[in-house]
């Protein structure tokens, strides 16, 4: 879809690389500018081998690497020249870092009006907290996710999934696509300001509007492994491991039929569970009853197959480390392998967008070595000859292997 679109990737760690990984997956030419001399800091995150890490391999496969010393004015000007040959710039540096180097959106868009400049930060580039640093955990806290997660009466906890990073990266990906569409119609570039906090905050389906219309009487609280408002939705101990069941009003009669068919309990005739409010008021009795019933099955597979017969939404709790063993993940190429010359075979999440306009790729592209494409990119985009590239290497402006 994005063949012919060129992205200048000034990102590191996770939120920005998530955006550019998705863009690369749709065919964009992503040129990852890594700050010299060591490059993207995620090259040193676990698990490492030599000068790279499996983390870096996962988030940066299919990109080209140019390593530039951004503490040198000529290095910053080189990056600005590259921006002028690109359609989109994506960055997730802290407040003021790129401004001090003349690579902020105001300066680059003044030079290149068609440029789309996307900035990802914890709190956004405006507002009283715009200068505050932040990572995913900060976004989960300020975005309201931690406050409603955990066991009732216990310390609130964060999600094991980096929602702020990946949510912001995915929002930026969508915004860039629409900005490209807008430019096709108008010829105008634009500045996109994506906040990790707001990426999480906009996910709340009830926690904001519910208290608003009830004068604060209805507030979401941590409900542990079960959804307090819509029991019996939640996590259950099965005969072997854990599974989730999500039954709302429309599915409740089918659950009653499923339990009754085994002779275990007549839920439909139990006055404690007649309405959704009744089920919420007696959630603990209902959960205990259902969990005891589930454990009468010989295996989790038998239980899940039985629930499926009644079209009840249920799934096993999958450890992501074991996802490659699941036939569904394999069929969808949701888990793939990348061959890296340093790390060897690295298992990673596959590309999540399936399109009728593009064939499923059967081989994953590798992640670049640090500065692997220095020479190729500068010659291709800026017309530099070997002598000029060699001079930049000699004076330390360019770093890495290319």
What does this structure look like?
- The protein is an alpha/beta fold and 402 residues long.
- It folds into 2 domains: 6-202 and 330-399, Rossmann fold (3-Layer(aba) Sandwich); 234-317, formyl-coa transferase, domain 3 (2-Layer Sandwich).
- It has helices at residues 15-25, 54-60, 73-83, 105-111, 136-142, 163-186, 196-201, 209-213, 252-261, 276-281, 283-294, 300-309, 327-331, 374-382, 386-394; strands at residues 6-10, 29-35, 48-49, 52-53, 64-68, 88-91, 116-121, 190-195, 234-237, 242-245, 314-316, 335-340, 344-349, 398-399.
- The strands form 4 sheets. Strands 8-7-6-1-2-5-14 form a 7-stranded mixed sheet, sandwiched between helices. It has a 3-stranded antiparallel sheet with strand order 9-10-11, with helices on one face.
- The two termini are 29 Å apart.
- The mean pLDDT is 96.
Looking at the overall shape, the CATH architecture of the largest domain is: 3-Layer(aba) Sandwich
- The overall strand count is 14
Number of domains: 2
In one word, what is the shape? elongated
Largest sheet descriptor:
7 strands, mixed
> What proportion of the residues is helical, as a percent range?
25-40%
- The CATH H-level superfamily of the largest domain is Crotonobetainyl-coa:carnitine coa-transferase, domain 1
Strand content: 15-25%
The pLDDT mean sits at 96
Rg over alpha carbons: 25 Å
Quickly count the helices.
Answer: 15
Strand order of the largest sheet: 8-7-6-1-2-5-14
Span from first to last CA?
29 Å
Decide which structural class fits the backbone.
alpha/beta
- According to CATH, the fold-level topology of the largest domain is Rossmann fold
Instruction: Provide the succession of SSEs.
Output: EHEEEHEHEHEHHEHHEEHHHHEHEEHHE
List low-confidence stretches: none
CATH class of the largest domain: Alpha Beta
